Amino acid sequence: MKIQAERPQGQNVVTAYGPGFVTINAQTHHDSLIIGHDRVLLHWPVKSVSELNVTDLSGLEKNCDVILLGTGLRQVFPPRAILTSLMRDRIGIEVMDTAAACRTYNILLAEGRAVIAALIIE
Fold first, then answer.
1. Can you tell me the distance from the alpha carbon of 85 to that of 58, in angstroms, rounded to the nearest whole number?
2. Residue 1: which pLDDT band, with cuts at 50, 70 and 90?
3. 16 or 57: which carries more pLDDT confidence?
4. Residue 112's domain is classified under what CATH number?
5. Residue 97 contacts residue 71 (beta carbons within 8 Å)
6. Is there a contact between 24 and 32 (Cβ–Cβ < 8 Å)?
7. How far is CA 55 from CA 9, 44, 46, 48, 75, in A?
8. Residues 83, 91 contacting (CB under 8 angstroms)
9. pTM for this prediction
10. Coil, strand or helix: which one is 100?
């Protein structure tokens, strides 16, 4: 799906997404990645929720209100230990499919929220 949105100056916005890709600021990516208003970490090594561990999400919470975890084509919750660890550290996380995470990221970004999206691309 292509998204037509106003791009806030200097911020990273999801401009399109679909099976196997996410486009950020008109640049298409086919590997899992992490996006924030001020950063894009390409080639995030996580290919599925089953590969995810706590260290894959560590450090993302700095200057961040919430982490959105896009789990691919379907919403799949990570192991309880990961969610428990994040909650213990008072890190907000929302789990959804990657398409929903892209839409939610743009909405929260437009509201001026400090949001990070960790997107698994299958």
1. 10
2. low
3. 16
4. 3.40.1230.10
5. yes
6. no
7. 31, 12, 11, 15, 21
8. no
9. 0.89
10. helix
Of residues 72 and 58, the one with the higher pLDDT is: 72
Residue 33 · residue 121 · CB < 8 Å? yes
Contact 120, 49 (CB under 8 A): yes
The residues, any chain, with a CB within 8 Å of residue 97's CB and separated by 6 or more, are 70, 71, 72, 73, 74, 75
Structural domain count, the chain: 1
How many C-beta atoms lie closer than 10 Å to residue 34's C-beta? 19
CA dist 106 and 84 (Å) reads: 26
In a domain, residue 2? The reply is no
